[in-house]
């Protein structure tokens, strides 16, 4: 497995003290931290640099964003739409692959780039899984991490039920395609507001207002008979 060439890491980045400051590793013994360090790799990327191209990531490692922001793009296998998410510092990415084989195919549809200057801690999956099975304190931290993620997702989904515009944006994403010639994201033929409203389960006036807001905020612009999506990342955020 090959990854993009990276610039050298500053001295001291691989210290136990640096590892101990990462939320996932809080209150772990030096013995555990030392094993993690032996199976981890500190990497730096410049803004815009590719971490993994589409189809390159195989799940053999997971990442912790130490500083900077990481942009993850995922192709929806059902709709073909590109979903984009920005990942902030102290966020763990793809650790679930260590404990479940069901998501491995989905990550073949992932590309990862540095949104700005980025420092990642890449941890070898198999070694980390083996260590967690032997160290209850590490497994406790992992459980707390996933518990926090599930709680946040539950409240996010509850909020979505009270945000009909979000459902409109989610439906609209299904119509977004990549223009092969220009590389732009676009809706080739905009569905009627009534059609969007029916699929989203909202009033037609809400759909009309949601689309108008996208244009007003510069997320999209009209290109009859469709739309050009100027900010795919923002649309994905609004829909999720």
Assembly category: single chain
Contiguous uncertain segments of 5+ residues: 1-12, 158-162
| CATH-scheme architecture of the largest domain | Sandwich
Number of strands: 12
Order of strands, widest sheet: 1-8-3-6
Could you tell me the strand content as a percent range? 15-25%
General description of the model:
The chain is an alpha+beta fold and 240 residues long. The chain has two domains: 143 residues, Jelly Rolls, CATH 2.60.120; 76 residues, Orthogonal Bundle (Arc Repressor Mutant, subunit A), CATH 1.10.10. The protein has nine helices and twelve strands. The strands form three sheets. The chain has a four-stranded antiparallel β-sheet with strand order 1-8-3-6. It has a four-stranded antiparallel β-sheet with strand order 2-7-4-5. Helix 6 packs across helix 7, helix 6 packs across helix 9 and helix 7 packs across helix 8. The chain is elongated, with a radius of gyration of 20 Å. The N terminus is likely disordered.
């Amino acid at each position: 497995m090959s990854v993009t060439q990276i610039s050298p890491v500053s001295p001291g980045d691989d210290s136990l003290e640096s590892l101990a400051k990462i939320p996932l590793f809080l209150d772990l013994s030096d013995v555990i931290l030392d094993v993690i360090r032996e199976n981890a790799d500190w990497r730096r990327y410049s803004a815009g640099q590719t971490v993994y191209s589409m189809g390159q990531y195989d799940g053999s490692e997971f990442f912790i964003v130490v500083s900077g922001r990481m942009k993850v793009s995922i192709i929806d296998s059902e709709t073909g739409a590109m979903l984009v998410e920005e990942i902030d510092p102290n966020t763990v990415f793809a650790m679930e692959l260590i404990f479940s084989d069901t998501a491995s195919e989905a990550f073949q549809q992932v590309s990862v780039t540095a949104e700005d200057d980025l420092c990642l801690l890449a941890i070898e999956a198999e070694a980390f899984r083996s260590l967690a099975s032997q160290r209850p304190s590490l497994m406790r931290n992992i459980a707390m991490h996933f518990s926090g993620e599930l709680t946040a997702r539950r409240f996010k989904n509850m909020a979505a039920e009270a945000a009909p515009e979000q459902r409109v944006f989610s439906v609209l994403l299904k119509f977004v395609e990549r223009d092969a010639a220009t590389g732009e994201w676009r809706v080739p033929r905009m569905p009627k507001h009534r059609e969007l409203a029916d699929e989203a389960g909202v009033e037609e006036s809400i759909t009309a207002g949601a689309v108008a807001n996208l244009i007003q905020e510069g997320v999209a612009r009209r290109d009859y008979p469709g739309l050009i999506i100027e900010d795919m990342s923002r649309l994905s955020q609004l829909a999720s």
